[in-house]
Design a protein that fits this description.
This protein has 121 residues and is of the alpha/beta class. The protein has a single domain, classed as Rossmann fold (3-Layer(aba) Sandwich), CATH 3.40.50.300. The structure holds adenosine-5'-triphosphate and magnesium ion. Magnesium ion (MG) binds next to helix 1.
Length: 121
Amino acid sequence: MSASQNQGRPPKVLAISSPKGGVGKTTTAVNLAHLAALEGYRTFLVDADPNRSATEWVESAGERMTFEVEAVEKVQEGSLAMLRELQGFDLVLVDLPAARRSHRRGTCCGEGPAACPPSMR
Ligand SMILES: Nc1ncnc2c1ncn2[C@@H]1O[C@H](COP(=O)(O)OP(=O)(O)OP(=O)(O)O)[C@@H](O)[C@H]1O
Ligand SMILES: [Mg+2]
């Protein structure tokens, strides 16, 4: 998919998750969002972690990061799949909190979105 080919299609949803904390979820989510935006993809970062690391990071970067970020209270079952309904974006990244439950694709992602456990290996 190139940045110009996705017009009118639902966005790709990529949730960054791991049962463990401190393994690079937020680093992965913010860097992927930044790189995608630089490539011209209309990118939206959902900060679903109550620690708000992603939001703080993007806010502190100011105009150097050109994608949208929004903090959400809580990820509900099936709510990641609903992100495919968002209009006007090519890519939606989700920074999930560390939780055994949240990294199970079937639990919160429903059909469609991909789960991407980061690795520091
Ligand atoms: N690929 C990497 N190589 C080395 N260090 C990394 C890498 N990715 C992240 N880090 C470092 O690891 C630490 C934790 O990263 P990060 O905050 O992204 O993890 P997290 O999984 O989001 O943590 P939390 O569960 O607390 O939200 C940070 O200091 C970050 O700079
Ligand atoms: Mg984090």
